[in-house]
Design brief:
The chain is an alpha/beta fold. 39% of the residues lie in helices and 16% in strands. It has 12 helices and 8 strands. An 8-stranded parallel β-barrel has the order 1-2-3-4-5-6-7-8. Helix 10 links the parallel strand 5 and strand 6. Helix 1 runs antiparallel to helix 2, helix 8 packs parallel to helix 9 and helix 9 packs across helix 10. The longest helix has 19 residues. The two termini are 28 Å apart. The N terminus is likely disordered.
């Protein structure tokens, strides 16, 4: 029950002359942990529109968001794509969360230099910065993370990502010191790469762990309670920074389990109830999904 529903219920009780005791009981129910355990943040993205510098604030608010999230591939960040969009969001009081993708062929030092070059124009508006976006995957072109695998030179993807994090984190502190530093952002099947990165010790400066929580045949949304418990063991919040229902019939993505809006919302509610350390849910709008 959201704040509006709670207010409506109290007004209705008052209108029908409910006793003070009944209203007091309602107040106790509304203040129980179950009612207050919802994630604090809802991240919403209409990526193509934001990269085109449209004002997507109405879309974010219509989907009950308080965070605008934008993935920036190197091809987009180097030309300042989406800066007007994130400024619209910032000026309207929304939180801005960017995930800076990098090419997997780059060395950690090259990734740090890239962050140094592109982050500054976005820095005045950002509330949180994710290092990478699904770097465990490869592309068919050089867009985004490119054709090369992050795992290389005898290292797993998680170990290679940790080396990138160690190089990039000081850049984040220097250029955007007040922004939350977000670790992970792996695909729904690769959450264990986070543990690989933590195996040699806690990475410096991590303030949140991000997961991509689609309803998939393996990993993803159904694994969130386990992922949240792992993050809690590191005293970190878990953010489902990217998620959304597969509404197509049949779904166009072979790895996704199809949902209706109703089944999706019910499933997310069950997952949230089992994941007290989950602090962000969201909706990533993907037209073909």
């Amino acid at each position: 029950m959201d704040v509006g529903e709670q207010t409506w219920m109290v007004r209705k009780l008052l209108a029908v002359g409910a006793s003070a005791a009944a209203i007091a009981v309602l107040g106790m129910v509304l203040l129980t942990p179950a009612a207050s355990a919802r994630p604090s943040f809802v991240a919403v993205s209409d990526e193509s529109a934001c990269l085109a510098n449209r004002n997507i604030n109405p879309f974010v608010l219509r989907n009950h968001g308080n965070v605008l999230r934008l993935i920036l591939a190197p091809q987009d960040a180097t030309v300042g794509a989406g800066i007007a969009c994130v400024k619209y969001a910032h000026d309207a009081g929304l939180k801005v969360y960017i995930s800076l993708q990098f090419n997997n062929r780059w060395t950690p030092g090259q990734v740090a230099s890239y962050f140094q070059r592109v982050l500054a124009p976005y820095a005045p508006y950002v509330w949180a910065i994710g290092v990478g976006n699904e770097q465990d995957l490869t592309m068919h072109t050089e867009y985004g993370q490119g054709r090369s695998a992050l795992a290389r030179g005898g290292q797993t993807a998680g170990q290679s990502y940790r080396a990138v994090w160690d190089a990039v984190e000081p850049v984040l502190v220097r250029i955007a010191p007040r922004a939350i530093r977000v670790y992970g952002e792996f695909s729904p099947w690769s959450f264990n790469a986070n543990a690989e990165g933590f195996a040699s010790g806690r990475p410096r400066g991590v303030q949140a762990i991000a997961a991509h929580c689609y309803h998939t045949k393996a990993g993803g949304l159904l694994q969130v309670p386990q992922d949240a418990a792992w993050a809690a063991s590191k005293r970190l919040p878990l953010w489902c920074s990217e998620m959304g229902p597969a509404l197509s019939r049949p779904t166009r993505k072979s790895w996704a389990l199809p949902d209706t809006w109703g089944s999706w919302e019910a499933l997310v509610a069950r997952i949230v109830s089992r994941s007290p350390n989950l602090k962000m849910t969201g909706y990533y709008y993907f037209p073909s999904f």
